[in-house]
Design a protein that fits this description.
Elements (H helix, E strand, L loop, with lengths): L2 E3 L9 E3 L6 H10 L7 E4 L3 H4 L2 H10 L5 E8 L6 E4 L4 E5 L3 E7 L9 E2 L4 E5 L4 E4 L3 E2 L4 E2 L5 E8 L20 E3 L2 E5 L13 E2 L5 H4 L2
Parallel strand pairs: 1-9, 8-16
Antiparallel strand pairs: 2-10, 3-4, 4-13, 5-15, 6-10, 6-13, 7-9, 7-11, 7-12, 14-15
Length: 213
């Protein structure tokens, strides 16, 4: 598959590059205070050190329009798609390293909530670049570009990805996709998802170490 850059026009259907703020301090704190697992990925939804920085005010006021937000991170080593998720709101990713995002469009989901992975496109987010991934874009864990792995700041509306206190009543087909607060997930059969996850991705479980041109 072709690797696009988030600065290419093809990304405009999936998100946008964020300007207007210097995120260097936030990325320095991320690099200095968070681990990067060698054989897995970790996600922390809310990190007080990141949320106390000057850039957090810009993210809450200018990007999310004064909505309550959480600022956390996703770090590690990964090359596979494994699943796709979406939220009702945009997600901000601020890359400390070059990373690849594997993205699809929400309207490409079939009526039965399956989706063929041939619809997925790959986008390089260069180090020190911040992007908004629109609510209409399906995404999952970033993929690393070098053996150093990746560290990415993740910004979302507050409470997103928290554990559900109870499962909602299944009233629509989409309800079976909800796995956490504000998180709808479609897993791949080879993605290692939990037994309760809806498995609806068909086609190859994309591996950026093999499938990127």
């Amino acid at each position: 598959m072709k690797l696009y850059n988030v600065k290419d026009p093809e990304f405009k259907e999936y998100g946008r590059v964020i300007d207007g703020c210097d995120f260097s301090e936030m990325l320095s704190v991320l690099n200095a205070n968070t681990e990067c697992p060698e054989n897995s990925v970790i996600y922390v939804a809310s990190d007080s050190k990141l949320e106390s920085l000057k850039a957090a005010k810009f993210l809450g006021e200018n990007i999310f329009g004064k909505m309550p937000i959480e600022i956390g991170y996703c770090n590690g080593h990964n090359t596979k798609l494994n699943a796709l998720e979406y939220h009702r709101d945009s997600e901000i990713n601020i890359a400390a390293n070059d990373v690849i995002l594997l993205l699809a469009k929400k309207h490409e989901i079939n009526d039965d909530y399956t989706l063929d992975t041939s619809n997925v496109k790959a986008f390089l987010v260069p180090a020190n670049v911040a992007v908004e991934v629109y609510a209409t874009s399906l995404h999952y864990a970033p993929c690393h570009v070098t053996d150093a792995g990746f560290r990415v700041v993740v910004v979302l509306p507050k409470h997103t990805n928290e554990e559900l206190t109870s499962k909602p009543e299944i009233l629509t087909p989409e309800d079976k996709l909800l796995t956490h607060v504000n998180k709808w997930l479609i897993g791949h059969p080879e993605g290692g998802c939990s037994k309760d996850a809806f498995i609806g991705l068909t086609g190859k479980n994309i591996d950026t170490s093999e499938d990127i041109e």
